[in-house]
Protein: DNA sulfur modification protein DndC
Amino acid sequence: MCEPRLDDPAEASIEDAIRSIEAEMRDEYLQPHAYPWVIGYSGGKDSTLVVHLAFNVLLGLPKSQRRREVHIVSNDTLVESPLVIKHIIDSLDQIKEAAEALRLPIKTAITRPPTSQTFWVNLIGRGYPSPNRTFRWCTDRMKIQPTSGYIKSRIDEAQNVILLLGVRRSESATRAASVKRYDNGERLNRHNDLAGCLVFRPIVELTTDDVWEYLGEYDAPWGGDHRKLLKLYRDAGGGECPVVTQKSDAPSCGSSSSRFGCWTCTVVDKDRSLEGFVESGFAEFGALLDFRDWLVSIRNDPEKRQARRRNGSITITSTGTYVPGPFTMDTRHEILDRLLRVQSDLGTELVSYEEIEEIKRVWSEELTSSAFRRASTTVDTINKDRA
Ligand code: SF4
Structure:
């Protein structure tokens, strides 16, 4: 186990709190069953602390007692902020190497949405308008489903899993309410949507200061310290987008408090993490910010949207509000062209070859359907016809 770098008696309280959390984690790990742990790792401070403590627990046990597998799982939406996904990939590599060298039963994994459900295939291929608070089609497809798929596979193998999440009551009022809603007074709570998944929130009572204090004082057990993480937060200027495994957690994804979300996120008013990175010297990300802002600006432009949905129907809500259909085919081409220009200027892959192929497949399917011929009228044309 790693040693503290500073010897300050004032640290006793955080020391005690962490000791008691580790004791509880150890007790759970030593329960007489074989259910694996799955730790949702977003690369942010809270899930980093949970992984850190899990390492400590395993290192403190004799090899004969390290019987249960520990899976550390991150999700890559394929539109993550570039520096954040680099941090996740680099730190998972380090964790994997250290676990192998120390013979810890740790496995690492990164889940991703299938090509048919990525941000670009839905936005450019199917023409879904960029997500907003009322039509947030992204979180389930790009985050919840991939992570849930991984958890379900572990449940198939072992009947149950224990999902460790780095959620804390003091994160926000929304988080406090969600913790309260699912708190049954026991250590483990049933997952809302996944049968066989039991949720363990070991650091639920820690404050943000506690988390930073501990990460600042102790080196990462997989090597190095947590300074890179601290710098990432400083550069981004704040919060994070957490691991999301159920719809009731989804409001925290893409909320005003989350800043480590997808760089394409149009649910937030401003992408503060990208803005922070640009202000911290990563000027190249300015092009991503401009692209995101342009996506926001065209979302409700009637000339860019079909009047009807892809199946040819017109949507009127129960309150009588007319809802336009997806982006027109011309607009989808325009978005792809612009995206490819930004990609070429940046020299970093933003949309993959597989996604472009899938986009073309969706387009050709749509162009040959009879519903498309009815659906392709723009909102403007319909308004003009009405006039
Ligand atoms: S960060 Fe934004 S774009 Fe990404 S999944 Fe969450 S709400 Fe959607």
About this structure: Residues 1-7 have pLDDT under 50 and may be disordered.
